[in-house]
């Protein structure tokens, strides 16, 4: 009997190391904690930050973003220029470009890839990026290829967009693959090629010898680790097991600032935390009540309550100090600034209207509810918001915390009053924040529909002058804020941890890392 | 256990899997939100194309029968989150990791738990108080506290082991310890209780009176009956260890089944959630069956009850 027990135990003890050793990968030259797993490696399908980081290593575009300024630089295109404020674009392709399998990469690959992006059957979330675009391939007398893109209106940010993964070329094997299948090996054109993918563990990439500037890529291999827990990610970094962590727990921020200032440099992100206001809600149809809720919020105190790394925001579109290359109209005062006295006056007007309609104002207002997707940050944010409404307005707003997808489903169905939302800019342009709020648009979810707003967006889309376009977008944002369909709260922050011996890393509003530009300090 | 009884148990396990599969299908499909409900709203035609491709627009009963047919072939279809990867491939990758973690933890639990339980029962006094007190403490500690303390001590204080990740036996030692210790505590208490009862029996007193050594008494008269409650606990313990603990997998960033199970539900990855549920159910059933077989071997009287 004892022998049998021993044998069984020995079997168990042997099994574990055998299985474990069978899967051992050595350490890559750079270990990146990637947050959630990059579930989709097809660049036309990915949307998450984790997928974007992997795509930036595997794929290359016509342009690339300068790590410090995010200005578009030539990449697969040797040069590019625009006319009519960005309505027409011309990209001159480099000669002798190749895919990671050594096969030639030509302008037709771009055209076919962009056509695939536009097909609904592809399931691409960024299909609209090429709405209305006419793509033409031209052959120059010297035999080199040009890609000409013409939009109905100005797209001054298109050069920046071509640096991002949705507009990267995909190989013919992927274009021809049945939807939902990934050919093996995955042929790409970026600085790295896919070596190994273990779901929820890691993605290993290695230097692509066929990349057009492969000799400038210093790091030979990268590991993208799927680590959901921010605490685990922090542990890995502090133990020297990881070199880059995209986000750290809020609780750790003060200590990291004090003790790891060389590795931790928070910077503003081109992302907004805001409240969606359901204009179809019987109470919130009253603009005075919406104004009262918006003007009772002290964003500075809110930012402090969340640890201080995020900046207070009274506009939906985050500011871009020092990085914007786009014409920016002169700033105008935000209509929803903190003003408790004005907030109380708005609330009194709303109460009077409720009483006049025969309702008990106190009872009606007690039904106000803030929907938040359940998370630690949202819990603290919701508590701070409730406290401010209680203090400045005496309103007892209830908090309803739902699991992420359930909260989104409730928001989509219009079953909420106020909802905590966030948006990360796809590119450095106000349009990325404003377009979702078009009347009846799928990303709107507030019931906001204003012909003036849509007209401004239409005018911006049709503008052939970048300054005129920027002015129209500014006007649109002002209408959105005046109608209080959204209540801006904070500009989000990048809370990245980067190994101090890495050079080539620069904090920037998009949290963009050019993996091909990174190197270890000697 | 006779062949007929074993067949009946296998049939019951199969039926259980079918019932759990049906209930899980209804639950995951009844939950609000879908796999393509991201913050970035898809264009209606893109959403429609995706739903069409994954069969989500067909009537629910048709979807269920498709899932049932897949179950018969052990093919759960493509994951709705990892759209280019089949559920079978994901489970095939994560199951060995869960088995590696669980097997190590179970080994630690059995070795430590049985030794501590029997030793405490035999020696009594301070050793017994230490084992009982220690096991109570371990059972009371939540997994994340134990894991956090282990990381703090072994990774940051001593610098011996990595705090997380999956890359070899060094990465598995802390998860084994953190998953195995609470199970060891439970086993120690069961072994201690069983041994105390046997040690107080007339048979053991008579063996001692015959001049048998303590070791011989333990080996021939105490061990087997003392292990009966441990064997009964083996099933659930093995299932808990092999299917992985979500907390342990999260803290140590292990790509095992437990994480898939929870994340699939949160992502509304219907196919992966169903696949993980079926694997969990099958593992639980097999471990329970194995436990009953062991129990029947140790104590034939128990066979009638299983």
Report the structural category of chain B: mainly alpha
CATH topology of the domain at 98-256 in chain B: MetI-like fold
- Sheet-strand content of chain A, in percent, reads 15-25%
The count of β-strands of chain A is 20
Radius of gyration of chain B: 24 Å
CATH H level, superfamily name of the largest domain in chain A = Dipeptide-binding Protein, Domain 3
Please report the number of helical segments of chain A. 16
Kindly provide the name of the CATH class of the domain at 98-256 in chain B.
Mainly Alpha
List the quaternary state of the chains: heterodimer
Following the backbone from N to C, one meets helices and strands of chain B in this order, namely: HHHHHHHHHHHHH
CATH superfamily of the domain at 98-256 in chain B: MetI-like
3D structure, described in words:
The complex is a heterodimer of chains A (522) and B (306). Chain A is an alpha+beta fold and 522 residues long. Chain A folds into 3 domains: 1-58 and 190-263 and 499-522, Periplasmic binding protein-like II (D-Maltodextrin-Binding Protein, domain 2); 60-177, Dipeptide-binding Protein, domain 1 (Alpha-Beta Complex); 270-493, Dipeptide-binding Protein, Domain 3 (Dipeptide-binding Protein, domain 3). In chain A, 32% of the residues lie in helices and 19% in strands. Chain A is built from 16 helices and 20 strands. Chain A has helices at 2-21, 49-58, 107-118, 158-161, 172-176, 230-238, 253-259, 287-295, 299-305, 340-356, 361-365, 376-393, 404-412, 431-434, 451-462, 466-482, and strands at 30-33, 63-65, 72-74, 77-83, 88-93, 134-139, 145-150, 192-198, 202-207, 221-225, 244-245, 267-277, 311-312, 369-373, 398-402, 418-424, 486-494, 497-498, 502-503, 519-520. A 6-stranded mixed β-sheet of chain A has the order 13-17-12-16-14-15, sandwiched between helices. In chain A, strands 1-10-9-8 form a 4-stranded mixed β-sheet, with helices on one face. A 4-stranded antiparallel β-sheet of chain A has the order 4-5-7-6, with helices on one face. The model of chain A has no long low-confidence stretch (mean pLDDT 90). With 306 residues, chain B is mainly α. Chain B has a domain at 98-256: MetI-like fold, CATH 1.10.3720. Chain B contains 13 helices and no strands. Chain B has helices at 3-30, 44-53, 60-72, 87-123, 125-140, 143-157, 169-199, 202-209, 214-226, 228-242, 246-251, 257-266, 270-298. The relative contact order of chain B is 0.15. At the A-B interface, helix 1, helix 6, helix 13 and strand 16 of A face helix 2, helix 4, helix 6, helix 7 and helix 9 of B.
